[in-house]
Specification:
Residues 7-414 form the Condensation domain. By secondary structure, the protein is of the alpha+beta class. The protein is built from twelve helices and twelve strands.
Length: 419
């Protein structure tokens, strides 16, 4: 991704933290330095060369500039512009992987911004950083600190992974994925095609619709009946929608897994997330309940074999079309790690993540308290905004129909009544 898309913001991660009440900037500066000392990837650079390698630096002070936007006519809008600029400005990881900034929106309202190169963080790690920074700042202002020490730093895990990806284990993992994906083809959406982007229009389309609390509760019950979580259920509905769009009964979509099977990395910051390809085959007569059961098995099998990086699969494992295997991606945000900050204003950090330009079509389901948010981020040069809006609306409708009757065949789900 760095090679093909490194010129945009695809390789930026961002963590935002709103502070309400009294604020001590010197304490925050010390907390950020302690955070960098605690997690080696925040002070690891990647020198340019034929092979990617980590150069870990000793702990050192970290600059934390403070920008006051409280005098602006609309401080929140001014802060949003700065945050957007931060996440869209690339980071040269050969120089330093982390930028920090604090914005003052009011006398007792501050926003801490951590912008990181993707080499050193992922969604799970972002949640760890948010947790740790809060605790370390609390310690600097006199509150008790109770943080578990990371058992492994990222470099230790990288060495362990290299050992795992050799010999018989590498053959076992490669054998599973090549067998699972034999004959798989890229998803070819009829709505996809090259189209000019009007002047002044953003290059990416972002659409969001909500699943109401009653339907979300029913969806969770449906997952429990199938002895699974929301991820396979929401993914099964996504397969059903792709089938309605393409008429294909053999669908392969990409997703991101936490890839933290080793307990030693529970509190380790780094880029662990592994892309996996989830293939499902079914007929128009397959019911949604049956598809949920199949998807549950597919996801569990993929979790057991997620150690093999997607990039190590043989070339052309998935064929067809002119796109890439990661062009259509589905994920349940928060499935990597429960976010302690997934409420209210703190959702700003999720919004910032979705501004990254990563995949041609990225579909994300986000638990937000009692409701679910369904978000689509796709390329304006390849998809029509009206189609994108209808696609997300149809997904929400299919969820409502699924909880009304999961025994409806996939071919009839789009037309099934909603009770």
């Amino acid at each position: 991704m760095d090679h093909y898309r490194g010129g945009d913001s695809a390789l930026n991660e961002q963590v935002l933290w709103h502070l309400r009440g009294p604020y001590d900037h010197q304490a925050m500066t010390r907390a950020v330095a302690a955070l960098s000392a605690r997690h080696e990837p925040l002070r690891t650079t990647y020198p340019r060369g034929r092979r990617l390698r980590q150069l870990i630096h000793e702990p050192q002070p970290v600059p934390v500039p403070l920008t006051d936007v409280s005098g602006e006519a609309e401080p929140a809008a001014a802060a949003r512009r700065i945050v957007a600029a931060e996440v869209s400005t690339s980071i040269d990881a050969s120089v330093w992987p982390l930028r920090t900034r604090v914005l003052r929106l009011g006398a007792e309202h501050h926003l801490v911004v951590l912008t990181l190169h993707h080499y050193c963080s992922d969604d799970y790690s972002n949640a760890l950083l948010a947790r740790d920074l809060r605790a370390l700042y609390g310690g600097e202002i006199g509150e008790p600190v109770d943080l578990p020490a990371p058992q492994w730093q990222y470099a230790q895990w990288a060495r362990w992974q290299a050992e795992q990806l050799s010999g018989a284990n590498r053959e076992r993992l490669t054998g599973y994925w090549t067998g699972k994906l034999a004959g798989a083809r890229l998803v070819e959406l009829p709505a996809r095609g090259r189209r000019p982007v009007p002047d002044g229009e953003p290059p990416w389309i972002s659409v969001e619709h909500y699943v109401d609390a009653q339907t979300t509760a029913a969806l969770r019950q449906l997952a429990r009946r199938h002895r699974t979580t929301l991820f396979p259920v929401t993914l099964a509905v996504f397969y059903a929608l792709l089938h309605a769009e393409t008429a294909a009964g053999d669908l392969t979509v990409a997703s991101l897994f936490a890839n933290r099977g080793q307990p030693q990395v529970r509190d380790t910051v780094g880029f662990f997330a592994s892309m996996v390809l989830l293939r499902e085959r079914f007929t128009p007569d397959t019911t949604l309940a049956e598809l949920i059961g199949q998807t549950r098995t597919t996801v569990m099998d993929a979790m057991r074999h997620q150690d093999l990086p997607h990039q190590l699969l043989p070339p052309d494992t998935v064929t067809g079309g002119t796109g890439r295997t990661d062009d259509v991606l589905f994920q349940l945000l928060g499935s990597l790690m429960t976010r302690a900050d997934m409420a209210g204003e703190e959702l700003d950090d999720m919004e910032a993540q979705l501004e990254r330009r990563r995949f041609a079509l990225e579909f994300v389901v986000v638990p937000q308290g009692d409701v679910l948010s369904a978000l689509l981020l796709c390329s304006r040069a390849e998809f029509d905004p009206a189609w994108a809006d209808a696609f997300v609306r149809d997904y929400v409708t299919l969820i409502r129909r699924a909880v009304a009757d999961a025994d409806v065949p996939i071919a009839e789900l789009r037309a099934a009544p909603v009770t």
